[in-house]
Amino acid sequence: MPTSPPTLRAALQDYTPPPYLIDSVHLNFLLGDTVTRVESCMQVLPNHAASERPPLFLHGCEDVKLVAVKVNGESLPVEQYEVESSGLTLKTPPAGAFELEVHTDLHPDQNTSLEGLYTSGGNFCTQCEAEGFRGITFFMDRPDVMAKYTTRIEADKAACPVLLSNGNLVGSGEAEGGRHFTVWEDPFRKPCYLFALVAGDLCMKEDTFTTCSGRSVALRIFTRAHDIGRVDFAMQSLKRSMKWDEEVFGLEYDLDLFNIVAVDDFNMGAMENKSLNIFNSRLVLATPDTATDGDFGRIEGVVGHEYFHNWTGNRVTCRDWFQLTLKEGLTVYRDQEFSADMNSRPVRRVEDVCRLRAAQFQEDNGPMAHPIRPESYIKMDNFYTLTVYEKGAEVIRLYEAVLGKAGFRKGMDLYFQRHDGQAVTCDDFLAAMADANGEDLSALAKWYSQAGTPRLSVAAEYSPADKTYTLRFKQASCGARRLLLPPTPGQPTKDPVLIPVRMGLLAPDGGEVPLKLRGGEMLGSEAVLRVTKAEQEFVFEGVEQAPVPSLLRGFSAPVHMTVEGQSDEDLLHLLAHDTDSFNRWEAGHVLAKKLMRALYAAAKDSNEVGGRGLGGTGMVCVYARVDGAFKAFAISLPENSELMDKIPEADPILLHEVREFLTRQLAARLRPELEAAVAENDSAPGEQYEFTAAACARRALKNKALGYLAALGDPGVTEQLLHRFRGATNMTDEINALAALDRAGGGSALPAALTGFYQKWEQEPLVLLKWLALQAGSNVAGNVAAVRRLMAHPAFHITNPNSCYSLFLGFARSPVNFHAADGSGYEFMGDVVLQLDKINHQVASRMVSAFTTFKNYDQQRQALMRAQLQRIMDTEGLSDNVFEIVSKSLK
Ligand code: 0A1
Ligand code: ZN
């Protein structure tokens, strides 16, 4: 619901411990068709000096109606408390421990924010992170208040046969009027953001996992009846995650039951509520006919992620929300490692780094830039960002680079030993890592407090006379001028950070040079240099010939690196000989970026794309030289957002035309190779779909090649695509063929193919999300009208976040239509933001984020985008979520 403009801003430096604690809480949910009553009975403990009697403040929200307040069993006289929409204050609570009972009424069926208690497809469910529990009852809604929960749920037995909450089922029975109940007890203390309740008509699939100490854990996945046949992959992923965490981190599951529930209406991906994970259904349901390789990979990763939170997030949680990266950065790191172990490690690393550079670097360079530990926020929901999650994971990787895998594990062990059952800070994590290894890691602390992506430049010098090779590093941060916070001492000019540079040197014959730093010991063929100063040099001795350096192997730190004087020959040398697979890929990627930027610059000068005949020779070379899983990557062009970093005031449509030109060039020059790639990697007739690294790599290359061939506009290719589309036996191939048809212009075949796809999948909302996204992202000029029409299509539901992400974010990815010169795309998104803000603040604020990059574009577009931001800003009753992003963008 829209609220008045915000006045409250939370700040890290204002943290104080809570004046009271809640030792235990009994919740009684009386679920009803329209009204739900929540009876909460809390055992409150003082957490202040005995001489004081501070007021007790419990957070609330305007949709929660207070019905009764009792202290130690007696109704509290009205003059002893104050109730506002923000919360309930007990003016003079009793001294010592006491019992506080609060009854509230809610309307879950009217709750479109999808926070607190709401309904999805007629079933009840909750989402409490970050601050949704206050939408259920008045409570100390902060993560450092950790209580033991007992939850009774009562509902109509026919409408809600399944009644779930956290922990163990300790009771159940019949109630009056065709109702029934269950009682759940969670033996582990937890913050209220980890509370969950699910009630409804759900089917269940069950399995078991035997832990390393021999305990049997019941694993259950709940879905609507229609979907229960699609949970096997998620179940297997869960079992693999449980085993992996035991093997890699020695972490065993701690209850006898682990539940996952899939719901269609969910703002984010999934939620790690203690023993009752709630998932967006798109991250649970998958069979080869409905889900792509990408979907399977995401499901595996997110199932792992939520499971891993049981230790990194639940057993050890955050003291306050500024510490979010403590659990998220660490858990993303863990899910990335899990996925790397389950699939191809090098491929996963390239994918993770691409995402980081394409999106997080952009965030770091825009108006919402914040350190992985933000210093202030208006709405915490806005800080579930790529910076906190993905850059946070890269910062965890820095510990690993510095300490090695064994040292990292020692640090993790000490972290759990010290902090199990506590709500702690990022400093506590750093201290555990440092103490376990006897290392001073204070140089890593700046990564938590500085926003922006550090820039690292490297100059190299070879001295044939004394056979030394010198690397000179310089570091500086970008983004400082766009920092959100007013300049404060130390923030506008950044301090140097510790940058671990994993590296090797390649001799002219491609062999590895043994590394020996001046005055040091032999290091083998790979070393991790610790760059800690603004300027620092490392001198290698005994280098017989001028080498080619291979720096930042595996992307050992999240920085922009420039190697001065690096030639195309150097890059091709790395491509051919580097022992680090990431850097081999990186060499090709750098070549592709250089090529695209050169093409763009030439087009800008001459007003003609490709006018100077720049082809793709470098990339043709790259394609020829890489093999296996990397061949598909070798012809993947860098994302626009990555290129724009070095293109001031970019024209996104011109950049798109450059991409199209280069795609056509490559398709023409590589046609025989691409056709061979299709033929060699096609599935054999009757071949079963498998989600394995090798099978995914084959499909990726085949489909990438088909996408290129589609760009040729050859009717024969279109015919082949249509044939493939009709005959596809899995969704990866089916949706790729449809997308390629779209790229090929599709001719008259495209509308019929789209209609056929819709009819085939009419009953599968998750598949229709792909159908919506594909049409929304079309680069056919004037497509905004079609997207407006799709909003009225039965496949689209404005109250469903997935629908909005597919249609609107899909549209924002179209350079031609979102960035249309007449501003029609921006106006459409402005309309969408305002409409959505009345329904769901979190979804609206994700949409408005499409405007935050406006300073990257040319003057006309900046003005048009800014005008939409201003129009949103001037609208009455804006949510805090949208207000925060718009106001920071307009600064
Ligand atoms: N903790 C979850 C993500 C999550 C965060 C916020 C939510 O609502 C605002 C929902 C889910 C995770 O990292 O998976
Ligand atoms: Zn998480």
Provide an overview of this structure:
It is built from 26 helices and 33 strands. The protein is of the alpha+beta class and 891 residues long. An eight-stranded mixed β-sheet has the order 6-5-9-3-2-12-15-14, with no helix packed on it. It has a five-stranded mixed β-sheet with strand order 17-18-19-21-20, covered by helices on one side. A hairpin with a 2-residue loop joins strand 5 and strand 6. Helix 23 runs antiparallel to helix 24. The longest helix has 34 residues, at 386-419. Bound molecules: O-methyl-L-tyrosine and zinc ion. Residues 127, 129-130, 267-272, 305-306, 328, 381, 384 line the site of O-methyl-L-tyrosine (0A1). Residues 452-562 form the Peptidase M1 alanyl aminopeptidase Ig-like fold domain.
Assembly type:
single chain
- How many helices does DSSP assign? 26
Distance between the termini: 26 Å
Structural class designation: alpha+beta
Per DSSP E runs of 2 or more residues, the count of β-strands stands at 33
* Structural shape: globular
Bound molecules: O-methyl-L-tyrosine, zinc ion
What spatial order of strands do you see in the largest sheet? 6-5-9-3-2-12-15-14
Helix share, percent = 25-40%
Q: Mean pLDDT, nearest integer?
A: 95
Question: Sheet bearing the most strands, described?
Answer: 8 strands, mixed
**Uncertain regions spanning at least 5 consecutive residues:** 478-490
- The fraction of residues in strands falls at 15-25%
Please compute the radius of gyration using only Cα atoms. Answer: 28 Å
